[in-house]
């Protein structure tokens, strides 16, 4: 299986699809990459030549922010919000939704599994 | 949604004037303001503000990182008085 940027091993799918297994590459960038590296997007990833792989890797390395670097960037922006104590930072600290969503119900992605409060009205109905 | 660049950041003129005055006099007192929607611009760095949150004035020392945010983002308007404990009242229906 081909390797790009050391860790990522996109599988036997079409190049345009398998590129998306790299963190930070979505449909748009996958297409752009194929065009810029002059790689046939429909070619299976396993059929990519050394040359093509090198080209893709070079592009990714020099001009795109992906994988670890992107993750770090994201962490830093969140850390910045936390540090300056602005509203968004406070929401991050508390693990609540940041962008003004309701929290009376839902918001489970941010809040995690339900913590049922004993004695609260309506607990029975919810179960 | 972002604000149109054409307009530039929303900065309350009066506040900017006040900041300049503080700059001139070297006064260390916080600038009292109700303009929560005013964007923090580089001129504000190193100044003390007291931002109204609906009840009190929250003190804020502006640092470089805060540029681009609104003043109101640093003065929370809601107080969360923890859930639970004994005698947790009825509360939330459904």
Helical stretch count of chain B? 1
User: Helix and strand string of chain B, N-terminal first?
Assistant: HEEE
What spatial order of strands do you see in the largest sheet of chain B? Answer: 1-2-3
Terminal CA distance of chain A = 48 Å
The whole-number mean of residue pLDDT values of chain B reads 84
Radius of gyration of chain A: 21 Å
| Percentage of β-strand residues of chain A | under 5%
Give Rg of chain B in angstroms. Answer: 18 Å
Overall mean pLDDT of chain A stands at: 86
Helix content of chain A: 40-55%
> Multimeric state of these chains?
heterodimer
Task: State the helicity of chain B in percent bands.
Answer: 10-25%
Given the structure, what is the number of helices of chain A?
A: 7
Helix-strand category of chain A: mainly alpha
Q: Helix-strand pattern of chain A, N to C?
A: HHHHHHH
The 3D shape of chain B can be described as globular
